[in-house]
User: Fold these one by one.
Assistant:
Number 1:
Amino acid sequence: MHNKPQLFHPQAEAALADPELRANFRGAMDYLRDKRQSAFDDPHEESAIRDRAEVIRQRCLSKLPTLLEQLETKCIANGIRVHWAENAEQANALFADIIQSHGGTMAVKGKSMVSEEIELNHAMKKEGIDCLESDMGEYIIQLDNETPSHIIMPAIHKNKEQVADIFNEHVPGFKHTLDVDFLIQTGRNVLREKFRTADIGISGVNFAVAETGTLCLVENEGNGRMCTTVPDVHIAITGIEKVVEFLADVPPLYSALTRSATGQTITTYFNMISGPRKSDELDGPQEVHLVLLDNGRSQAFADEEMRKTLQCIRCGACMNHCPVYTRVGGHAYGTVYPGPIGQIISPHLIGLEATQDLPTASSLCGACGEVCPVRIPIPEMLLRLRREAKQEPRPDVLELRGQGAAKNNLEAFAWRSFGLFASHPSLYKMSSWFATRLRGFIPRKLGPWTRCRTAPKPAANTLRELMAKRNK
């Protein structure tokens, strides 16, 4: 199932009409919100963690070009081969070249939203290379030919009955059961054999440390460690914004990430990869490759306000607290990154032409901004994108890809007319007078609303007029 952002409204309507989907999300979102609240039971500690995480991310982004060069130098010195990709096509071509140069036909892949962003699995399939997802949630939805509906928990929209049905259809020898432990063990048994036989291991990167050339990977299942150590070749892919300056920057961001994502103080596994296997080591890959992907991030970086989008550490807290996401789920958005963070980052990745409806898919309640561990002002950025989708490029503002795609000449004329009347008291009074006398032309279904309301009176022109009204 591959939805499209251009069809957000019908996809959202379909999601709202699915009682099972809504029940699955309701339970999952309540659980994740409760876990986060328990992890941040001290508001002062929460504020301190978020403040520090914000400062670190802003400092690192302010030095991004320099840090990327430093990261490349350190990685090369460590024996990691660094590749640069401007877009998805270049990234997929790099993967194909590396895998085919080793005669590889099968790869096991740890959880990586960036690989979803470039549609790596589909691209490699065309080259005769199978990519098997090893994260349990990703494995489940891959069997069902779906995409992730959440950036942390890809199969959060599935319940155990649905998972059992998927295994029953796709896993040979599976005996139908609703025992969750048995379901998980079934998936692990399949994946364990694939780890042994895979030619290539693929992973994402949570933090790339410029100071040491270290790739940090956060996980709970151990599949990430298997993907990065068992196969002879490990290929990591990450967006260019994931670089941090110092190794000391990682613990505060790690704490903010885990608490916000799953309510954990620390995850089960934290992997630090600084190079391929050395001659005196018994395990690890013979080669390590790092693919640094732009894919629209430079556009966000160039705009001082939109640059804050790149502060994101992919915790998913904004989704868990968004009243829109929790009701329609991730697939309704039709983008790799759904929910509030997807609404502000997707326009840079695929343009405002395709995503013009997404910035309006928000109640602007502010919950996303209140829980963001790096304090991204998501509501303000949504308003900015709404304006840019409606307005033509302006000389004093950096043009966004697809800017003005949602422009409507009739709507623009209506707003200009309203601005004219609202800024001139005499015109406003006249229009209010006409509006009250032409009430009979309003459609009947709006009649009850208008009969009990009157147009607001214009503001006083001068202090003298205001004082005169008060003295009456």
Number 2:
Amino acid sequence: MYDVYAVREDFPVLKEVVYLDSTATTQTPIPAVEAMVEYFYRYAGNHGRGAHRLAREATNRYEDARETIARFLNAEPSKTVLTKNTTEGINLIANSYPWESGDHIVTTVLEHHSNLLPWLRLQKKGVKVTIVSPDSKGKVDVSSIEKAFTEKTRLIAINHISNVFGSVQDVKNITKLAHRYGIKVLVDGAQSAGHMPVSLKDLNCDFFATAGHKGLLGPQGTGVLYIKEPDVLDSALVGGGAVSDVDGYTYVLEPSPACFEAGTPNIPGVIGLGRSVEYVEKIGVPEIEAHEIKLSREAAKRLSELEHVEVYGPEDRVGIVPFNVKGLHAHDVALILDQTRKICVRSGHHCAIPTIRFLDVDSTVRASFALYNTEEEVDILVNAVEGLKALVS
């Protein structure tokens, strides 16, 4: 197991707060920040648009980052598209797939709005959507997915880990099932990449979207979209960098991934993301996963023992602990924790209103753990929440 206290030295803000909101965004380590600063100070040129030394250096570093990210996810660089976030990646699929009226999509109640709204919007084009419910702990049964299939089902869109429950979905077996019916699968990996081992060749899903600023520890404005068969899609955006020839009336797009990356990308962000992925690799994802599971399950167990607290999610949760304090609104709980103990937690519907309504509450407090959190921080959280009993008794 790695030395969590040594790791914390690379995240200066952790000296100021108890940061338990890594499901929303993780902190970025010093080496990744330094890599971005180096870009601005030493070789700030555009990507793929020049023969001079700065442009060459920027392009080489950007593509090196792509190779690092692809290796980390066990994917081919040519199928690894760099986006600005998970949302953009999912929308790219929704806007690029050759849908026909009557086509059918299966998704779940557990989805983040980013993996729900793009599919609901397709209803305007005649695409039908079925939303499958999980069990009370946030697990989707594979058989319930199969029961939703029709002859026109073209896609299953499902999260790998619920950002509300912290429950892990069986996406590997869901993918095997879907492929037997000729159905493609999109996995929202925003909460899995970097938090648990992910091999895209092993999962064998058709699309996998994730963010740079969550488990990969990268900066905001970066993301990754894996496309197993790029030729099945049209490019959602066209423009500079995506085209190989234009005759004034027609154009020819570059092969993947360039055809999906029109315009100047977030060059320093991607370079920083590549460095943060190397940082995660060096520590080891299995070690990070074990550490986060230990902390989150201990926090969930201890919080559930408080009579004025209700905890949601499965016993085999990963690093996410949603809860409510009876008699207090989630936002009030979050503000009190912040103002009295400098504890940063998320409150609200977590961009997943259907999931919150499924729980039959109007919001939850969410504590989420990352590689840099400690057992002492679990103590601080539990003791602070225990102290809220005086406000509700």
Number 3:
Amino acid sequence: MGRPLRSEQVAGDEVSIVHAVQRCVRRAFLAGVDRATGKDYGFRREWIRRRMEALASVFGVDVLSYAVMSNHLHLILRNRPDVVAAWTDQEVAIRWLKVFPGRRIEEHLGEPTENDVQMLVSDRERLAEVRRRLSDISWFMRSLSEPIARMANRQDECTGRFWEGRFKLQRITDEAGLLACAMYVDLNPVRAALAESPDQSVHTSGYDRIKAEQGQQIDSAAFDLVPITTKQAGEERRNTPVDELRNKKRAKRRNPTGKRIRRDGWLAPLTLNRSTLSSDAELNREGVRASDKGFLGISLTDYTKLLRWTAKQSEEGAGRKVPPSLQGLVSRLGIDLSMWRDLVWNFQRYFGNSCCAGSPSGMTQFAESSGRKWAKGHRQVAECFAA
């Protein structure tokens, strides 16, 4: 059975949640210590996180969870065509031009001007295509992966492919699959023995949320969504030496807006707001993320408690019984309490070869909607859910 087309997994005109994985080709190292060469690429992790943060400020895509590993990335993303539809033409144009200015100056991307914005706004056909791309997960991943590949190849002094191919995409069908997948992503460093607990798993969404609750702030990597005047751009190019222009652009990349935000301020909020309608786009007005809509029906405090408890269940069969205070979080989703640890720690075994992840009923419904009789792995997943 062939894997579904991208268009079958994510419809461009409706909100969908997916688990995306991008893996390096051969033995290339994204971050961490390469055992083959002894080089430490750990410094790339923060650059990659900041690139995700910057893209979250311009794309109509919510970043729900993420983990930057030694040779691959995990992201849980939600496309938001409803949010992009609410943006003005000028907002759409400046957001697109911040990522794709369309010109280079001494190999440094030029800042979009007011004239550039107006030219794009006046091209109605092009603008409509750009509006569609801003909520397209494939374009988000392209904007993330290509700069990483160029940077890595430049540092490694080589050419050729850095990623093994197009990123793997897996549709999340329901809240049960989303909770398990979010835990799996946040616990990747613990499973890989790179950290002992979520509190030490730097460069994961779980770590960011924990530190944010403790009051930690960071310099915002969000794009400055204000175009410069055409006159100012012309004077700068004529009168500013290339080295000075290069240093100025490098300094601005560190904190384009001059703002400081909560460490998790660029991530989608974890908890759904029950007082708003499900159709409410909940646009973010601070320019750090697409929207303020949550994605799970539990509080951040409860999520963190369950995350920490699950992290401790590293040995097969050890302490499998979920504590009474956390049982309601799991059982309300139909998950067998005794199988929660297995569902998260062995997420790849249950869902690794499947086009989707969720409860058996959710996986069956998705398979039928994409013209298939079943989704691979749904019978095995049924073991983790109460009859």
Number 4:
Amino acid sequence: MMPWYGHNLSGWGWFAMSVGMIVFWGVTIIVVVAVVRALGRSQDYPRPPAGPSPEQVLAERFARGEIDEEDYRRRLSTLRTSTAPNTDPGPRTTSLPPS
């Protein structure tokens, strides 16, 4: 017959209970912090750009002497026209004259 120890836990029982309580409170704290951070994040503020703009890179290349002034101005005008909002009405259709 197996002896009963009443409500007392052995050494391993206390260890398991202590580890379980630490894990429980750790997970609880992590979840609370994650929820607070997610709710506190505002979508109103735009994120800063990841790096320098193409115009800044071009200006740096010009300042280092990698490109001359003519090349700089040509590339700068190309950048400014390609980054402008698209005002093109769409593809052009040509009609053939009646035969």
